Predict the structure.
Amino acid sequence: MQVQIQPLSSTHNCKGFDCGTPPLSKWLVEMANQQQKKNIARTFVLVDDSAPETVLGFYTLAVSEVSRDGLPNLNKYPNRVPVVRLGRFATHTTLQGQGFGEYLLFNALERVVEISLNAGIAAIVVDARDTKAADFYRRYDFLPSLDNPLQLFLLTKALQAAVHQATPKSEP
Ligand SMILES: CC(C)(COP(=O)(O)OP(=O)(O)OC[C@H]1O[C@@H](n2cnc3c(N)ncnc32)[C@H](O)[C@@H]1OP(=O)(O)O)[C@@H](O)C(=O)NCCC(=O)NCCS
């Protein structure tokens, strides 16, 4: 299976996407394109070269702002700090556990590093759905917010190292 990650476009078919979490699958089908058209969020999709219209996984990035208080080691920063939010992230149930989630996450991190070179952001932040999802992010050095264990951060200054240190950036 030869896969690639592309910006979501009208050529992609999201119908039938099932990540096992109905609200998340529904969001992709019903909201992703709308938010993209409004320039509120950008979605990137995983496709197989042999059927590039079918979405197999996705993640969404948006610009956001959070209180400095929750982030560790940001004592001398302003009260509100700019971040990129990993708003939605999932792989199709039939592909889970085969490395595609990690592949998507590293692609997102690389993209956030690129964004950070062009606009100031202090961290990438994610609101994990539950403790199981939070465990997934902690594997990749995301740190829990000081006031909410389901909100996790990876500081921009740690991102570059994280992207370069981790190995499986090739396709699963
Ligand atoms: C979470 C999710 C995106 C992971 O995708 P995936 O394709 O299964 O992930 P991978 O196969 O790349 O797994 C990478 C590693 O993380 C581990 N992992 C996967 N899901 C995990 C979880 N929920 N908690 C802890 N570890 C997890 C895998 O075992 C694997 O570790 P290994 O390499 O040591 O075996 C996927 O399970 C999913 O879409 N879940 C439903 C939606 C969801 O919860 N999204 C996150 C919302 S905040």
